[in-house]
Amino acid sequence: MNPDVVREQHSDDPQQLDLLRVCRIGRAQGLKGEVNVYSFTDEPEYRFAPGSVLYSRDGETEYIVERSRSVKARWILKLEGIDTRDDSEALNGIELFGEADDPDEMLEDDAWYPKDLIGLEVRLAEHNGLGLPDGQVVGTVVDVLDGFQSLLKVRLEHPVRDAATGEVTESSALVPFVDEIVPDIDLDEQYLTIDPPGGLIPGLAQGSES
Questions:
Q1: Per-residue pLDDT for 17 more than 50?
Q2: How would residue 160 be classed by pLDDT, with cut points 50, 70 and 90?
Q3: Structural domain of 162
Q4: Residue 22, exposed/middle/buried by CB under 10 A (0-12, 13-18, 19+)?
Q5: Looking at 111, 131, 165, which one is the last position of a domain?
Q6: Where is each Ribosome maturation factor RimM PRC barrel domain found (predicted)?
Q7: How many domains does the chain fold into?
């Protein structure tokens, strides 16, 4: 099973490290308190399920989802206690947060938040297919890119330079975030390992050290 990147966004408020930004409320929908929301989560069915609890930025105000529905690419929520159009219009622009998933459960599910991956040192895996030393430092994860397949953007420890001018020609690599290439992630030690095929990492030649 390939690891999953959970695309909810952590609050930038240091007092709310256990809350994740889930959505921003938009315009009112109809006359009975429903609101349109812009979702920041990859799990809207879970976060917007009836009975789910969402919070204000400071975590002091709770909003309980009474019902929800998706229409094309958007979600419409009815929150408990928000029963009129005036009520829903008053919420326009408010961001709602949810509790972060249990880290142990995420490990079991092989799921990761981008913030957990960014900053990790990238090392070559044990018995890697390139035949290079185990643990050789390749670089540092600087971004996680979305797409058909999640990609780790790695800033290279040893950028590739033009032999004639000495100018840097390649300073980063994109690594598919799949088990076959990223076999191990150690958040305690702040590193992950990769077993890249030849040619994926600029400057790493099979059977030679960069």
A1: no
A2: very high
A3: 118-194
A4: buried
A5: 111
A6: 115-200
A7: 2
